[in-house]
Design brief:
By secondary structure, this protein is of the alpha/beta class. It has eleven helices and 18 strands. It has helices at residues 35-38, 66-72, 84-87, 180-193, 212-222, 233-241, 264-285, 301-307, 330-333, 347-358, 375-383, and strands at 21-26, 40-45, 53-62, 96-103, 115-118, 121-122, 142-143, 156-160, 164-166, 201-204, 225-230, 246-249, 291-294, 313-316, 338-341, 365-371, 390-394, 412-413. The longest helix has 22 residues, at 264-285. The two termini are 35 Å apart. It binds NADP nicotinamide-adenine-dinucleotide phosphate.
Length: 418
């Protein structure tokens, strides 16, 4: 049966009852490639909730870089792990806002009709790490809607009850649908991994991107001084609006980017530009950064290690430009610098960060709210780096304002990009 995407906001069932099928954007292994082709709309059976699971009606679904990777099947195909072998499809989407529709056995904190935001970490209750170390350390740990199917690019999604957070009443469905993954990741990186303090200096790569817009706001909220790196003046203006001391246009330092395989002479030239960049950072912040916020990877990592202050921290959660990193390690050991890996966040961190959203101290930054049929195009725009802040797609919601119940500042809309 053909799926009518224009009808996704209409349901003929009440909370507590699931329809038999739903519309979903699906990636299948045989069509991995450009996002615009990899995602196709399909009619899929609605799953039942298992023990401690909840089915949420998706009102809006945020777009993240992880499903650009999923579309391409790179660096690894998602189909080899998680619950993908069981179902054979990938319904992506690791961010969303929605309404609890049906709860599974054992769920007591949530009821049909509750309005929620979903965080994307899953782990088994049976893993001991969940009960004393950190769910991010559990062998079963997975990112929902990337390493698992049943993500948010569908009318309904299946989640663990512990993934649910109350939707801030001052935010609409759209406002609250797209901050979770990047904001909670940035929160753990800065607050818990680096213990950012008032007066710290921070260098943020990609400061107008999904992670960067929240890292910049968190620094401002914590009383730290941030300088953001961006690739245009428009993005620079956004970053200053979010509270950065200033920005640097990386095009002015294009020669510092590590490509890999450079000759010793080329490497010498590259290093000269890194040195000039570090000088510029220092002149803006008054000192070298205590923290460098990294997710670009290969191209920027040698500059990050060089630029960070002695005893400073480079915290990294991604590698958009390549994951094989090399750098001159003398700058690390001689100056006793630290490199910290970080990955998403635990439920307690998500809850604390979500509270700051409810209080209006941190605001969502959105670039576009597209209709549900925009899911493939949204990922294509991300792949081509034509966006700023976040893109979201409306599923049950019919307007960007719907779902807001209290006065509050709402999202900042970025006027940047394609
Ligand atoms: N481990 C985790 O939990 C986790 C969580 C979230 C994201 N990530 C990863 O982190 C990365 C960034 O995610 P995001 O949501 O922030 O993506 P995003 O919205 O695309 O933002 C990334 C920014 O990085 C900058 N950038 C891209 N390529 C660059 C290059 N070659 N050199 C310098 N800057 C470059 C771009 O800014 P300018 O062009 O303005 O400089 C871009 O806006 C992705 O690889 C993602 O998969 C990991």
């Amino acid at each position: 049966m053909a799926v009518d995407v224009s009808e996704v906001s209409n349901l003929d069932v009440e909370p507590g009852t699931l329809p038999e099928t739903m519309a979903a954007w699906v990636i299948r292994q045989e069509r991995e490639g450009e996002p615009k082709d990899a995602f196709q709309i399909e009619e899929i059976e609605v799953p039942e909730p298992g023990a401690f699971e909840v089915i949420v009606r998706v009102m809006a679904a945020g777009v993240n870089f992880n499903n650009v990777w999923a579309a391409f099947g790179k660096p690894v195909s998602v189909f080899g792990y998680g619950d993908h072998p069981e179902y054979g499809h990938h319904i992506g989407g690791s961010d969303g806002s929605g309404v609890v529709w049906k709860v599974g056995p054992g769920v007591t904190n949530w009821q049909p009709g509750d309005e929620v935001v979903i965080h994307c970490n899953q782990a088994s209750y049976e893993d001991v790490e969940v009960h004393g170390l950190d769910p991010m350390a559990a062998p079963s740990q997975k990112i929902w809607g990337y390493e698992t199917t049943w993500g948010s690019f569908a009318q309904f999604t299946k989640v663990q009850a512990q993934q649910l957070l109350p939707k801030p009443k001052n935010l609409s469905w759209v406002d609250s649908s797209a901050y979770g993954l990047t904001y909670f990741t940035a929160y753990r990186m800065l607050m818990d991994r680096c213990k950012v303090q008032a007066g710290h200096n921070v260098l943020i790569w990609g400061a107008a991107g999904g992670l960067g817009v929240f890292a910049t706001q968190l620094c401002k909220a914590a009383g730290a001084n941030a300088v953001g790196v961006v690739s245009s003046e428009e993005k620079g203006k956004l970053v200053k609006q979010l509270g950065a001391v200033d920005y640097i246009d990386r095009n002015e330092f294009a020669g510092m980017m590590r490509k890999g395989g450079e000759s010793p002479d080329e490497e010498k030239e590259r290093f000269k530009v890194s040195r000039a960049f570090a000088k510029q950072v220092k002149s803006i912040l008054g000192d070298a950064p205590d923290i460098v916020f990294e997710h670009v990877g290969q191209a920027t990592f040698p500059t990050s290690v060089f630029t960070v202050k002695p005893f400073g921290k480079v915290v990294i959660c991604g590698a958009t430009s390549g994951y094989t990193l090399d750098f001159d390690v003398r700058y690390l050991w001689m100056k006793q610098k630290e490199i910290l890996g970080s990955h998403f966040a635990n439920a307690y961190e998500c809850m604390r960060a979500n509270q700051l959203m409810a209080e209006g101290k941190i605001r969502p930054v959105l670039w576009k709210a597209m209709d549900f049929d925009g899911v493939p195009a949204a990922h294509q725009l991300m792949h081509e780096n034509k966006h700023a802040g976040k893109i979201t797609t409306m599923v049950g919601a019919t307007s960007p304002e719907e779902g807001k119940h209290e006065e509050g500042p709402g999202a900042i809309w970025a006027e940047v990009g394609a």
